[in-house]
Amino acid sequence: MDNCFSTCCCVKNLFKRKQSLSRPIDTIFNLPNTPTSWPPGNGFASRVIDLGGLQVSQVSTFNKIWATYDGGPDNQGATIFEPTQIPQGFSMLGSYSQPNNKPLFGYVLVAKDVSSSTTNSTLKKPIDYTLVLDTSSIKINQDTTCYIWLPIAPDGYKALGHVVTTTQDKPSLEKIKCVRSDLTDQCESSLWIWGSNDFNFYDVRPINRGTQAPGVHVGTFVAQNGGNTNPPSISCLKNLNSLTQIMPNLLQINSILQNYSPIMYLHPDEEYLPSSVNWYFFNGALLFKKGQESNPIPISPNGINLPQDPNNDGAYWLDLPTDNANKERVKKGNLQSAESYVHVKPMLGGTFTDFAMWIFYPFNGPVRAKVKEWGPKIDYNLDEELRKVEKLLPGKLKDAFEKIIRSLPDEVLGEEGPTGPKVKYNWSGDEV
User: Fold this and answer.
1) What rounded mean pLDDT belongs to the chain?
2) pLDDT bracket for residue 2 (50, 70, 90)
3) Over the stretch 264-311, which tens digit does the pLDDT of each residue have?
4) In this structure, are strands 297-298 and 316-319 parallel, antiparallel, or unpaired?
């Protein structure tokens, strides 16, 4: 959920292209439901965020600068855009690029100096440019020749993106702004946009991402020689202010959930269903402790007797009732009581809010793995049998199967039981 804007702002006029073949980028991505406003409160959805003497606003209206129509993901090429309709007083930090195989969906941040300093402003124009790429010698299907320029920042400042032109003339020094170094963060090349072994475009993102990480994704791209090498030649932003002041309040959270909550469908033959946590507690769930496995404790219906010390993680676990009748009954869950549990967290320096939704199941249920390319289909229980299957596969399939095994959660591969949300990486880390 984007904290900069209350609604998704989209391109008004799509570019016309000489190419007759339509590509996904010719379509603008729109959310199925775009509310015009959110309930008031805090700094959420206020359209502008103050990072500490530097205000940023999101722009997703663009002018097309250049496009190529082959190479990149799905061999459909890529397009470079420049932000338009920049709010009064704000400056461009870089250009935007994306592959042509997806609808137009991106954004870039623009910035405004709101510091009180006259000698140490948060924004400064570059002192010169370095030519990064000239496509005149590259044999590609392109609109025109593309020139990509990297701003040379003054001492104490960093460049956050490129300026792109279709002529050999250097851009104006007024075209883009560099940001004071203390308001920048190290970034890394992320999603591949377009290129070859010799030269590539990548999206960039903060290298440290989590609920307490201050790095801000700017939305610009980096053009660089060779492959995905880090660190890139540009930086990301950093939020020096409190992240909590721009988090949504309860009314705003409820409004977001009403508009965007996913719908979960269960197969009609599903034997093991979800329940609420309280139903699980009320119906005989037991608390076990290492070293005292023979003496489990019934959990209070409201969970009040659960351990509270954060330093004893791993010493306790929950399990089903020990008598067979209740054990089988509780295993099946109770759909009528089931609830979704929502974890709301700040991400990317508070400029985004993640809504992580959790469903509780009293029992994992039986899990089976199926492997099929050429030859017979093999169906095995997920435990040591996985390794037996691996031995039967030819070389290429064996490598692919090993990747599948490594990607499976530990609890699926025979851990005593699944771990709770708190110890999952995305509880406080990135969702991707």
Assistant:
1) 86
2) low
3) 999 999 999 999 999 999 999 999 998 998 999 999 999 999 998 878
4) unpaired
Q: CB-side exposure of 238: number of CA atoms within 13 Å?
A: 17
The answer to whether the CB of 191 falls within 8 A of the CB of 219 is no
C-beta neighbour count of 371 within 10 angstroms? 19
Spatial neighbors of 51 by CB under 8 A, at least 6 apart, are 183, 216, 237, 238, 239, 240, 241, 349
To the question of pTM greater than 0.70 for the whole model, the response is yes
Q: In what order do the strands lie in the sheet with 199-206?
A: 187-195, 199-206, 221-225
Per cent of the chain over pLDDT 70 is: 84
Sheet holding 128-134: strands in order across? 128-134, 147-152, 163-165
Location of structure tokens 């996904």: 24
Please tell me the predicted confidence (pLDDT) of residue 227.
Answer: 77
Per-residue pLDDT tens over the stretch 81-122 = 999 999 999 999 999 999 999 999 999 999 999 998 888 999
Q: What is the pLDDT of residue 189?
A: 93
Closest CA to 256 of 30, 33, 28: 33
Cα angle 308, 312, 315; round to 5: 115
How far apart CA 295 and CA 287 sit, in angstroms, is: 9
User: Which residue do the tokens 């339509």 mark?
Assistant: 22
**375 pLDDT exceeds 50?**
no
Rounded CA separation 396/394 (Å)? 6
